[in-house]
């Protein structure tokens, strides 16, 4: 029986770094809904945006608290003019209360949140966007597998993860320096305890070293995204 504790094999989603970076945005018709927090459904077009032969992309920016998910995801969404979904905004109040109190979330606390994020990204694509960028810690392999269900039965939908990699010490410094956030520095260690770094077998994950300055990280992430999309476009046109 398939359970959330059983990693699902990933087939054919080769989103790893690829050659042929384009100087232009590689997507022919970029969606123009602009960055939004909390994508609402649009019944008039729901279901008509997908399955029409164009390539669509979900980019999930992942990593522990303070690694720079929001910073990178906003940059990508702005550059690509795609909707931006902030994963933290989808946590139920009970999860926020727990994290604010310094209590790490459990698997049970995260399942519905992950499913909602997956559904929200699909809604954004149903609205006709060519892609969507979302943030989600996705600390464990089985959490990433929940999102990996999104492109099932939809060959033109491509799911990619960016994993923002830095040491616990660096993230502790960044969270300590941050003001007015429910996730306190006391939570950073528990994030690393839960973390299962993506392995090379997870070929849909692009790791990015975020010990570097933010501008360098954002530029690297955008380059990797453009190269990956470009490679897929070329592959499809052959
Ligand atoms: N490469 C970087 N170098 C230095 N500081 C950074 C870098 N990236 C992000 N920051 C800063 O680190 C802090 C955390 O960044 P950000 O909020 O983007 O992380 P996050 O992963 O979304 O955090 P959380 O999941 O806890 O909401 C912010 O103050 C941000 O300005
Ligand atoms: O899975 C989790 O434990 C949570 O998603 C956290 O990672 C926070 O929501 C996020 O990082 C904000 O600090």
UniProtKB/TrEMBL annotation:
Catalytic activities: D-gluconate + ATP = 6-phospho-D-gluconate + ADP + H(+)
NCBIfam families: therm_gnt_kin (TIGR01313)
Originating organism: Sordaria brevicollis
EC id: 2.7.1.12
Keywords: ATP-binding, Hydrolase, Kinase, Nucleotide-binding, Transferase
One Pfam assignment: SKI
Top-rank taxon, per record: Eukaryota
GO annotation (BP), single: carbohydrate metabolic process
Keyword Transferase annotated: yes
Enzyme class, broadest EC rank: transferase
GO MF entry, a single one: hydrolase activity
Pathway assignment: Carbohydrate acid metabolism; D-gluconate degradation
Name of the protein described by the UniProt record: Gluconokinase
